[in-house]
Amino acid sequence: VLNLAGDYLASDRTVEANFSAANELAQRHGLPNVEALHRLAVDPAGHQRSGQTGVSDIQVLRRKGCHVVAPKAPLRLGIEAVMRRIDRGLIRIHPRCEGLIEALQSYRYDPRRPNDEEPLKNGPDHACDALRYLVLAFDRGGGGFKARGY
Q1: 6, 88, 133, 135: which sits with the fewest CB atoms below 10 Å from its CB?
Q2: What is the DSSP letter of 50?
Q3: CA dihedral for 56, 61, 64, 66, sign (positive or negative)
Q4: Helix, strand, or coil (residue 5)
Q5: CB-CB contact of 138 with 41 (8 Å)
Q6: Partners of 119 in beta bridges
Q7: How far apart are CA 114 and CA 4, in angstroms?
Q8: pLDDT number for residue 51
Q9: d(CA 73, CA 80)
Q10: How far apart, in whole angstroms, are the C-alpha atoms of residue 7 and residue 26?
Q11: Do 144 and 72 form a contact (C-beta atoms < 8 A)?
């Protein structure tokens, strides 16, 4: 069972600022510091190097002692992995995860395109994406999923 004890949502901040804020939040709730986590799941886009620093966000986190994984999988497979855990009661979300709960309640598809497998990308999807990366990292040890065509 994946127990989500807290969430942290912010925008327009550096990795270092987010790292510090997440550690402060963890300390406030008696949770492990970020660098003490077994895995820190991130968006695979975190491998991209910054044009300003020449360093990727993942490199910054690894230099801080984090075990970072960036699972890759087709969007549909990631969503299915999250749904499977929800359906089986294998995710527990603490009520203080207000941002994630709101995002999950707002996650939706375009009603004008009922056959489209892509959810609307309009803000609430970021927390849902983070959950998807976490589930993929947890379920596959960070390696993600491989889609096979038959």
Answers
A1: 88
A2: P
A3: negative
A4: coil
A5: yes
A6: 109
A7: 31
A8: 84
A9: 11
A10: 9
A11: yes
Structure tokens at 1: 């069972």
Q: Which two tokens stand for residue 82?
A: 């999250």
In contact, 74 and 148? CB cutoff 8 Å: no
Residue 47 DSSP one-character state: G
CA distance 78 to 55: 27
Tokens of 74: 């087709």
Q: Which residues pair with 40 in a beta bridge?
A: 68
Which position has the token pair 């895995």?
A: 39
> Which distant-in-sequence residues (6+ apart) come within 8 Å of 95 by Cβ?
101
Secondary structure of residue 7 in the 3-state scheme: coil
Q: pTM score, two decimals? A: 0.84
pLDDT at 52: 83
